[in-house]
């Protein structure tokens, strides 16, 4: 069996992994406060070394004196590094001891929202819960080989399955209130009846379910916002996925969280029988409910002679009697981009009176971000996103023409609303008119964003650019 222990060594591996992702746990949790001194010492020795290296290069100190200084600095640096490593070991050992106690249970905080579904978060400055949940997630993923599907892989495969002359039908459905209605009892029975997880892991999963029930007041469900919930949801749906994929009538099946698409061979009668099987398993075996608002009421005949379309994972697939498969952005995604344009402009109009330069720069960067491509930082480090990389499967660019038209109209609104002000916004209007969704897509235009204040990291400035779109 793989090492599933909540040990000092495993917690150190989690820490190192989070650090590579760009998460500074030293600043998140006060247990690491003593380590800052040793880190600063190491930085100081490195800085002094650079100064002496420069002096040696300029021949302002002798070679022997430089070498002696390097030996001294390396010795001091090594001592600081050793002390830092010992302090890390002490911290992880203490966390391990606390988590390993029989009395330890997972604690969460509830963040309610009027616009979005409730989120559950780890209490502030609670490293015990953080590292325990991370290790539980790793153990579950390895033991059951579960992970969330890749959106791009799904769309790529779906495109290939649809783009041919084979007679087929498409079933598009969704699970209602997915996270909130998953049966904890069934999940716990599934975990208990297997010998894949240690007893300690099972106890902690039970405590997680109990904590969720205590906070939500609901006897079933998984806490949204907690990383391990995504893996528990995948485990819960694994049997349905296997049953549908192995059905001879199925040409293609994919599920992304609660979003399901099935492509069947043959006519609607075949598809309807398969859909009945799927509904039966969802309701009886999983104790879940189909979301009829996001379900095609009748399977779609989908081939090159048909006039049909459906949306899935931000894309709209259609033939409309044409000779080839047409893929565009979904209506929901187009409207989301439009809301972001409007939000960017309304924020500009609100702040331009106070500081024209700052407001203009921020608006330009937001429109640049929407109409081009960039690279993310932090958790999604090196991930490429933007008008092309987030929509690279579309071949019908009329959706981009629609967005360009909308952007031009909103820019005209800025011109009209600021025309009577004593501030000249003509250069800004001229610059905004240079940007185009279609051009950004076709030319794969790539941009980077550097803060006007050099002390602010690019990742922090990028966060400033996009935070205005929260909930938009």
Number of strands: 11
Query: Which percent band covers the strand fraction?
Result: 5-15%
Number of helices: 17
Structural class comes to alpha+beta
Q: Radius of gyration from the CA trace?
A: 28 Å
How do the SSEs run, as a string of H and E? HHHHEEHHEHHHHEEHEEEEHHEEHHHH
State the share of residues found in helices, binned by percent: 40-55%
Separation of the first and last Cα atoms = 46 Å
Principal-axis shape equals globular
Explain what the structure shows.
- The chain has 472 residues and is an alpha+beta fold.
- It has 3 domains: 8-100, Orthogonal Bundle (Helix Hairpins), CATH 1.10.287; 151-292, Palm domain of DNA polymerase (Alpha-Beta Complex); 333-468, no CATH class.
- The protein is 54% helix and 10% strand.
- The chain is built from 17 helices and 11 strands.
- The chain has helices spanning 8-20, 25-28, 35-57, 63-100, 127-144, 151-162, 178-181, 184-193, 199-216, 227-245, 268-285, 331-351, 356-371, 398-418, 426-432, 437-442, 458-466, and strands at residues 109-111, 119-121, 168-174, 250-256, 259-265, 300-301, 309-312, 315-318, 326-329, 373-375, 384-386.
- It has a 4-stranded antiparallel sheet, with helices on both faces. A 3-stranded antiparallel sheet has the order 7-8-9. A two-stranded antiparallel sheet has the order 1-2.
- Strand 10 and strand 11 (384-386) form a beta hairpin.
- The longest helix has 38 residues, at 63-100.
- It is globular, with a radius of gyration of 28 Å.
- The mean pLDDT is 91.
